[in-house]
């Protein structure tokens, strides 16, 4: 399992796609984004256009653990991105965030093939002015710490350059 962290437009998604494409296909792209507005729908379309066959896309805005568990044995899986998943879970008033996070970690532990997780590192900025944004930043940091402890490799991507924080070079 590889955790790829980085800021917005850091190159983390392209880097993660390269890790998966180094494996035999077909590859499973697990998308957590939701097209709430025109701009987000355009971003989603651009990402999809960048991934022709043998990429297969599965949408998992909330039930990410189930999609990871259902991946065929040996199939390389790319999840992009965990901070969108976290946002979706946090905004779902019926969701139990600790249980959802535990389920995600368990599905990662049990993954039956190569797994690459992409997430935004949001802890480098200023302290947000509102409680929800501060809670999101804190929850993302806790999630990243737990996943980094579990991961074989952790990579921080800055300006398109990967910095290996844990594990070997890909």
UniProtKB/TrEMBL annotation:
Its EC number is 2.7.1.156, 2.7.7.62. It comes from the Bacteria. One of its GO terms (molecular function) is cobinamide phosphate guanylyltransferase activity. It catalyses: adenosylcob(III)inamide + ATP = adenosylcob(III)inamide phosphate + ADP + H(+); adenosylcob(III)inamide phosphate + GTP + H(+) = adenosylcob(III)inamide-GDP + diphosphate; adenosylcob(III)inamide + GTP = adenosylcob(III)inamide phosphate + GDP + H(+). Coiled coil: none annotated. The active site is at residue 47. It is an enzyme of class 2 (transferase). GTP binds at residues 6-13, 31-33, 48-51, 80. The keyword Transmembrane does not apply. Keywords: ATP-binding, Cobalamin biosynthesis, GTP-binding, Kinase, Nucleotide-binding, Transferase. Pathway: Cofactor biosynthesis; adenosylcobalamin biosynthesis; adenosylcobalamin from cob(II)yrinate a,c-diamide: step 6/7; Cofactor biosynthesis; adenosylcobalamin biosynthesis; adenosylcobalamin from cob(II)yrinate a,c-diamide: step 5/7. SUPFAM superfamilies: P-loop containing nucleoside triphosphate hydrolases (SSF52540). GO terms for biological process: cobalamin biosynthetic process. Catalyzes ATP-dependent phosphorylation of adenosylcobinamide and addition of GMP to adenosylcobinamide phosphate. Belongs to the CobU/CobP family. This is Bifunctional adenosylcobalamin biosynthesis protein. It comes from Methylobacterium aquaticum. The lineage of its organism: Bacteria, Pseudomonadati, Pseudomonadota, Alphaproteobacteria, Hyphomicrobiales.
